[in-house]
Amino acid sequence: MNIVPIVFAFDNNLILPAEICICSLLEHAKPMTFYDIFILHSSQTELSAFDTKRIQSTYPRCKFTFITVGESFSGSYEIRDITNVTYYRLLIPKLIPEYDKIVYSDVDVIFRDDLSEVYNSTVFDKEYIAGVRALSHKIAGYANYYRNKLRIPPENIIYAGNIIINSKQIRKDGLVDVFCEMAKRKFCFQDMDIINIVCQGRIKYLKPSFCVTTYFMDFSVNDVD
């Protein structure tokens, strides 16, 4: 049995997308894959409408664990109607200590394949995180933001919506506290910027197939190199 631990974080506004996302994950599971699913949510949100029993009756090779997050990010910077739930991924190494390596995914995702291969084949040395390079260097405004304001080469930026976390190394180096301190600042892309700043130079890059975004499709359709 291949156990793949994976984390999601959402509130009551995203129940339907979350159910669709997780069902797509389970629909494409290989016969020997078991998903250990963790749901992070606010202490003010019960997620009572999220029907785990119905999902497990169709896809029994999974387990759900709900974890309440305290007020670690109360008052943290919010932009583009993205709430502070987006910062919860920064706490994963501390909240889920039983795994040294773990997947995080946003819920605005449709899975098209099993994750056991990429999970098992992602071997960390000293890297903190693994993800897919964003296309920030191809978009002038984003390139300028990362190069001139954050002082990060835009071609090195990864998306934060689908990542594999080296929780063991992050715990060892005490980065969760660094993440939380950074969350007090006003970054345009919130947790994504924090991850790229703090983990700069210690990122493992995955194939684009792990996180295909609308930007990839736009550039493909328009034949942009």
Properties at a glance:
single chain; alpha/beta; 9 helices; 32% helix; 225 residues
Task: Describe the protein's architecture and organization.
This protein is an alpha/beta fold and 225 residues long. The chain is 32% helix and 20% strand. The protein is built from 9 helices and 7 strands, in the order βαβαβαβαβαβαααβα. A 7-stranded mixed β-sheet has the order 3-2-1-4-6-5-7. Helix 1 (15-27) links the parallel strand 1 (2-9) and strand 2 (33-42).
> So what's the overall shape?
globular
* Biggest sheet architecture: 7 strands, mixed
Mean pLDDT reading: 89
Number of strands: 7
Q: What is the helix content?
A: 25-40%
**Main sheet: strand order:** 3-2-1-4-6-5-7
Class based on secondary structure composition and strand pairing: alpha/beta
Element pattern in H and E? EHEHEHEHEHEHHHEH
- End-to-end separation: 41 Å
Count of helical segments? 9
Unreliable stretches covering 5 or more consecutive residues: none
Radius of gyration: 17 Å
- Percentage beta strand: 15-25%
Please give a quick description of this structure:
This protein has helices at 15-27, 52-58, 92-95, 116-121, 140-149, 167-172, 175-182, 190-198, 214-221; strands at residues 2-9, 33-42, 62-69, 101-105, 129-132, 162-166, 203-206. By secondary structure, it is an alpha/beta fold.
